[in-house]
Amino acid sequence: MDQATTSATMRAISQNIAGAPDVLKIVETQRPVPARGEILVRVHAAGVNPADWKTRERGVFANGAKPPFTLGFDVAGVVEAVGDGVTLFQAGDEVFGMPRFPHPAGAYAEYVAAPARHFAPRPQGLTHIQAGALPLASLTAWQALVDTANVRPGQRVLIHAAAGGVGHLAVQIAKARGAYVIGTATASKHDLLRSLGADELIDYRTQDHAESLRDVDVVLDPLGGPNWARSLRTLRPGGTLVSILPPDDTFPAKEAEAAGVRAVFMLVEPDHAGLRAIASLVEEGRLRVVVDEIFPLEEAARAHTLGETGRTTGKIVLAVAP
Questions:
Q1: Same domain for 233 and 186?
Q2: Would you say residue 114 lies in a domain?
Q3: Whole-prediction pTM value?
Q4: CA distances from 2 to 5, 8, 12, 80, 132 (A)
Q5: Is the CB of residue 183 less than 8 Å from the CB of residue 171?
Q6: Cβ proximity of 47 and 24 under 8 Å
């Protein structure tokens, strides 16, 4: 890279302290330079995830990184430059990915430098905005249902918060695996979920899934708390409960063992092969991402405020570049 590139600056969202959404500020900062094995991506879109606003509120990343820092893991954009040794991509390639999770990736910015294999080619037919909505949520669903639970044709799969960011993608991935898919969501979201392939829907406000469901093979639970134990009651012997929230003292590991089922916590990881599998589903017309709201980069605080309501359908995305 030439000196002009290495000394360039960029816009990014930064926070100096833990707190509410208003701690997120637009700043001018140094543009990163890709190290060996890394690519520099000009970010066109950055997805917004619960991990972002939880990190903002706590003021610390999982690896202990403290402010000032830049949030964001979901990236869609164009390769600007490649570091030594990179053969997967070249400048001008369109990519999407979830770099470095759960360590800081700095996706709420105009440029991101990260390992090349944390990205994959952008799925054909998707805009940058749609691709930016996919990585963390789709990889979470894929790794939970495919890698962890090994969902197979004919199995009964229960997906909680089925209209959420992870949930609406999990419905489609389970369906693509040949499963009978049951989702919990408010009644107003049932039509959307049917269009995504859900076979059976439960309005959690008027119906108790723990009383009405039995013989479920796999439960994907992004809710936690009392829902964990209640979901165990729906599983058949040998079934699997996959939580994407870290266990606390309410996590029913002993109860699961006593009932002859498995209860596990799964943390999503960067996954080049998983991204390519997800891209294939998109290109085959078997997976589509629902984008609820789009905000410009400088309105990241508004995006967090909306996300924290818990009422969105699908994903929130920051538009970073045209």
A1: yes
A2: yes
A3: 0.95
A4: 6, 10, 22, 13, 29
A5: yes
A6: no
